[in-house]
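Supplementary notes (optional reading)

For those who missed the lab, this is the record we used. Protein: GGDEF domain-containing protein. Length: 268 residues.
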Amino acid sequence: AKKYDGNAHVYYEEELTTAIKRTFQIKNVLQQVDFYEVLSVHYQSIIDLKTDKVVGAEALLRFETAELGKVSPAEFIPVAEKHGLIMKIGEWVLKRACIDMKPIVLTNASFKLAVNVSIQQLEDKTFSDRVKTILKETNYPAENLVLEVTEETSISDSTKVRNTLNTLGKTGITVAIDDFGTGYSSLEKLHELHVHQLKIDQSFIRDLDKTTAIVRAIIAMGKSLDLAIVAEGVETKKQLDFLKGTTCDFVQGYYFSRPVSLDDFIKE
Ligand code: C2E
Ligand code: CA
Ligand code: CA
Ligand code: CA
């Protein structure tokens, strides 16, 4: 009944206006030259299932201002993508993360830093050169970097995306397919791409009771293609125990650690 209520309608319009205003404010902040002042990078541990040791970390952007409070990446990344701002933000986060993780890599040569990359970045012809430049500037080894590309992005038919992935793969950088299982990749497509890792989407781990067969199939398929498998969103011992019974290689999730600031990550 509320739907037809005049006041509810006004309320809805107000909400919409607030949302539009918020998007506008986010865009404005990200357009500033000092956009990075509102951003920080948190790190979430990635654990080797066989040894229970931390073998890497995923860099996750955080955004906070006094006016807007905390803004989740699920909200501001699409705004940045829509307004052509993701390239500079992507470069900033990559550089920041390489600087932050460099000391760890120096003491642990097999440590891998994973950074998320948007489709617009991969479509940009200059992207692979820019990545190389950042690695050079920060003196960060390509072998210790993973770039995470969503499954949706990786199967795009864009030749630009393919070329970038292939060029990056040749530099020694690991390419991971993120949110795997949510797209429609065929074995063939995966085989054609220079991809090294699959990250099983967390929705499958959350509903393991229902998705056991699918998760087993994804792991088997990934293994048959010689890919390393990461399970994301591991929150319980039960989920972990299930994965320990498979050939999954790495796990990530709140059960081990939430994404935390650099200081807290080093303490961990
Ligand atoms: P994603 O790459 O799939 O990252 C995993 C998300 O799951 C993160 O959310 C992480 O905090 C959350 N997570 C980790 N473990 C658990 C768990 O056990 N349970 C649950 N429920 N969630 C867990 P976050 O940090 O909010 O990031 C959301 C998305 O924003 C990321 O999804 C990624 O697509 C995007 N994103 C974040 N940072 C960047 C970035 O630097 N560049 C780009 N292009 N995208 C980014
Ligand atoms: Ca990711
Ligand atoms: Ca993911
Ligand atoms: Ca995601």
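If you only remember one thing from this example: The chain has twelve helices and nine strands.
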